[in-house]
Q: What sequence folds into this?
């Protein structure tokens, strides 16, 4: 970097800045700073030189222009073979640029109005970062406080930031600015009311590497969606247990989705990307017990999601079983102490009330990405159309709606049997609906008698209804819409079933 070294500092996040600046000074750097950054450093006892000495003016246009000036950017962009030209122009070279940006993502997540959001869009900072990153052969760029220690360690060791590190910092800098631009685009497209915008731009930051993927031969990692709303797994803190696996996270995601589906205390027991049992009850512990008991064989080695703080009673219910991972909005101290006696149990704390997410959903296919809006139309008793001679009772309607809400999260074709706000049998992921009906009935056993059935799509033939009747199903909810609806309705009447049409299909592939 040469003998006379200069650093330009202009940051929004002041974390670790004073210590970093002192370290740079200790390695012979002359510090130049924008006004706000300079004020912060001077309060910390670190003198700097003002960029106004280079540009000839301070911030103008209400702060919109501070660093956008040829003297600044020439000093960053000059290649080693252009330093003579830079000197003849009367400009100084910069060897290190430390910049981070206005917190636009935070403003966007808070849903600020457009005029305020526009003022939170950083222009000069982005330009400084991109200039330094482009010229990484000579200039080091830092955009995150986590990078400061690496830079100081290299200066301590060799007296300079190595080329490999400068190149890596440049790559991270472009990732940082591209993510920032993506957040702005996403915000503006939402302001325009574009449910499916004209461009798909994803900005995701790695949360952690995983031991392996769905199977041991695949490498895997977990990335955070920068503008996700609601409660996400990236927001959760692991309090105990082995490190999370790829499959753990898939199942925890489903547990979280189901737990946020219900306002009542709810427990979801997940196995291989399907619920094996779901229940709502007066307490989280009771909900867990009923959800686990829905299919205790499948629940061995399950993942569990609750939408209430785990108390000691709930912890005692869970301690008796082999559970791979548990997610909840919080844990009472004695409950957490008890659960921590299970050495390998992964305990995830969502840090407060679980909130449903309504973001776009993405699925990768060969050569592209499928994108859809998330969620389903609201489904209530008033929306149901009775199509059989017998109308369902109020209790049956309650359980039909509960079963339908669970059905959304079961792999298609899906059949869910429920009684008293708990599943008793689930048939999932079959190529034919009649097989899903058979499996749900088999899982339920004696508990199928009098149960209420929800189907994620219409019955194409009466055979699915006939299978349900064999095990004693009393009431059915389905979307309707088959060319054989009349045949299916006749089968329900023949068996004395009540059946309602919802008009809402709930496939989950």
A:
């Amino acid at each position: 970097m040469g003998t006379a070294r200069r650093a330009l500092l202009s940051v929004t996040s002041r974390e670790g800045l004073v210590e970093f600046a002192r370290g740079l000074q200790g390695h012979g750097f002359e510090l130049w700073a924008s006004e706000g950054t300079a004020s912060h450093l001077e309060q910390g006892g670190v003198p700097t030189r003002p960029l106004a000495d280079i540009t000839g003016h301070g911030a103008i246009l209400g702060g919109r222009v501070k660093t956008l000036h040829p003297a600044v950017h020439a000093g960053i962009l000059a290649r080693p073979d252009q330093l003579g030209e830079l000197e003849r122009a009367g400009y100084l070279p910069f060897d290190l640029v430390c910049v981070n940006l206005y917190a636009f993502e935070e403003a966007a997540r808070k849903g600020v109005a457009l005029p305020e959001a526009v003022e939170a869009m950083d222009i000069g900072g982005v330009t400084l970062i991109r200039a330094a990153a482009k010229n990484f052969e000579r200039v080091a760029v830092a955009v995150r406080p986590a990078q400061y220690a690496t830079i100081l360690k290299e200066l301590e060791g060799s007296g300079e930031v190595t080329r490999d590190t400068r190149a890596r910092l440049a790559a991270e800098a472009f990732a940082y600015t591209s993510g920032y631009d993506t957040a702005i685009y996403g915000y503006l497209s939402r302001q325009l009311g574009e449910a499916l915008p004209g461009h798909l731009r994803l900005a995701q930051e790695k949360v952690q590497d995983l031991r392996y993927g769905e199977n041991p031969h695949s490498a895997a990692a977990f990335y955070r969606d920068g503008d996700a709303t609601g409660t996400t797994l990236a927001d959760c803190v692991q309090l105990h247990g082995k490190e999370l696996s790829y499959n753990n996270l898939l199942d925890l995601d489903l547990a979280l989705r189901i737990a946020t589906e219900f306002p009542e205390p709810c427990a979801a027991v997940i196995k291989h990307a399907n619920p094996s049992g779901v229940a709502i009850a007066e307490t989280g512990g009771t909900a867990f017990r009923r959800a686990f008991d829905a299919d205790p064989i499948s629940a061995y080695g399950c993942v569990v999601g609750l939408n209430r703080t785990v108390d000691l009673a709930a912890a005692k219910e869970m301690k008796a079983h082999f559970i791979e991972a548990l997610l909840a909005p919080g844990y009472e101290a004695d409950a957490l102490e008890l659960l921590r006696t299970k050495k390998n149990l992964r305990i995830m704390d969502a840090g407060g009330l679980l909130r449903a997410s309504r973001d776009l959903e993405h699925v990768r296919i060969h050569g592209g990405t499928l994108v859809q809006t998330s969620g389903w139309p609201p489904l209530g008793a008033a929306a149901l159309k009775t199509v059989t001679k017998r109308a369902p009772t109020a209790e049956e309607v309650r359980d039909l709606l509960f079963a339908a809400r669970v059905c959304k999260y079961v792999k298609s074709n899906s059949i869910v049997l429920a009684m008293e706000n708990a599943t008793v049998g689930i048939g999932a992921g079959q190529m034919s609906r009649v097989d899903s009906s058979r499996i749900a009935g088999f899982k339920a056993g004696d508990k199928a008698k009098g149960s209420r059935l929800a189907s994620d799509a219409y019955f194409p033939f009466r055979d699915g209804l006939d299978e349900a009747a064999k095990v004693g199903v009393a009431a059915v909810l389905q979307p309707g819409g088959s060319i054989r609806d009349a045949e299916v309705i006749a089968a329900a009447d023949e068996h004395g079933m009540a059946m309602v049409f919802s008009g809402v299909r709930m496939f989950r592939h």
User: Anything to note?
Assistant: The longest strand covers residues 204-210. The two ends are 56 Å apart (CA to CA).
